[in-house]
Amino acid sequence: MDKLRIVLADDHGVVRDGLRMLINAQHDLEVIGEVADGEAAFAMIRRLRPDVAIIDISMPLMNGIEVISQLSQMNDDTKLLTLTANEDRGYMQQLLKLGSDGYLLKRSAADELIKAIHTVATGGRYLDPSIIDNLVDKMSTAPSADAVTVVLSDREEEVLRLIAQGYANKEIATKIGISMKTVETYKARSMLKLGLRGRADIVRYAVGRDWLREES
Length: 216
Prior knowledge:
Layout: E1 4-9, H1 13-24, E2 29-35, H2 38-48, E3 52-56, H3 64-72, E4 79-84, H4 89-98, E5 102-105, H5 109-121, E6 126-127, H6 129-141, H7 154-164, H8 169-176, H9 180-194, H10 199-208
Helix pairs in contact: 2-3, 7-9, 7-10, 8-9
């Protein structure tokens, strides 16, 4: 029986080490590649075409949201499993809309990772059990999407403005006095809240808000 081929994308080496050990301990699974940033993840997944790619949301160069969004539009057979520490139900819903096949919390990985891989690999959709019950309750009582107003925090809006104005993550971090990792976090949150898929969408959103006409 052929093994399922897995790619790991997470910028924390310790996390990748733990995931790799869990996966390679299974007789039917094998890690064939691992990367620490989004651009490398996109390139490796396109090149190796694994059965399952496990993708962290917050990575440098290109965040997991952009990676998943771009890969899902290419109609490859690779199943995309989101890995994150974020337990917000809105994040999970948005990522599923963007093309993720599953949503796994890092704190659940030790117990649920193998099940999640097998579920998405066989065409199912995996939702972390620690939040799925609350998600179902929320969906049954939620107002229509048209009635929901998206609100960015001041910092999320500031980062999004600077991205739209052409600043790189490193420049943004220096300009407003935060780390590059924090810049990526604000960027990822904003994109999920607004349903944006990449930099082009950010620029279009900024144009619609007249941000690019303002002096930086």
